[in-house]
What does this fold into?
Amino acid sequence: MLKGFFVICAALAALFGLSGCSTTSQSAATEKKILLVAGRPSHGPGDHEFNAGCMLLAKCLNQSPGIKATVAKGGWPEDEAAFDGIDAVFFYMDGGPGHPVAKAEHLKKVRELAAKGVGIGFGHYGVECVPGEPGDAWKEWIGGHYEDRYSVNPMWLPEYKSFPKHPVANGVKPFSIQDEWYFNMRWRQNTNGIIPILVAKPSDDVRDGPYVYPAGPYKHIMEASGRDEAMMWVVENANHQRGLGFTGGHIHKNWGNEDFRKVVLNGLVWIAHGRVPKDGIQSTITAEDLGANLDDKRRK
It folds into this structure.
């Protein structure tokens, strides 16, 4: 059961937190290159603002010495040279059956990157892929994925009260924010190395739904009443390749919350084997920053 999974992960968190600090400090002198890949426009204004979100995160990352972040749009770089020399890539985009990364030639490319130790991250809808070859790849890279009719996607207000001793949690204070936080991922069989970062307990009302799509409730979700759920996690795999899954990010304005933003920035730096300061990655944004680079979603 997941309860045992979280107990194991709590112990692993301390272990991997220490090893993570050691590994990242050794590479602090080297510039870390992070590529953020934004999906095509979807949903209404203010939701699924993948381009604006990636541009904002890149701006924040570039405020930190030793980090160089760039953005590719459209779900996949027009020129795959964008992947050259990167230490991590974050895919923030629509997922499911049409996931851009799930195309055969794109799966091959990301597998090549992971084999070289490049960190792989997926944000919000991007954590969802279909079972089979894509699902197996996601499990290999980031430990698990959203699976249709197994995982759920309610809009709710979790309370993140405590965090593991891990670099990705550095400087993150308790927070609560309304978003479409997915849970009940399809985890890989061997959960070694998977560290839940954002964990909360959904109420029975949240478990009951209705979910955005497809409508709930689901029997297996209701039967897990009272169980903690992971909405963000990281993993360190056998070849030291690191992965990240972040299920929030539906509502663009949430990037204005310092802790919501910081935990993702920390995660991106960590999967790139960069050094996360004890107070976390510091960033300053303005209302103008939040309003910049939004997709034009007016009806034509």
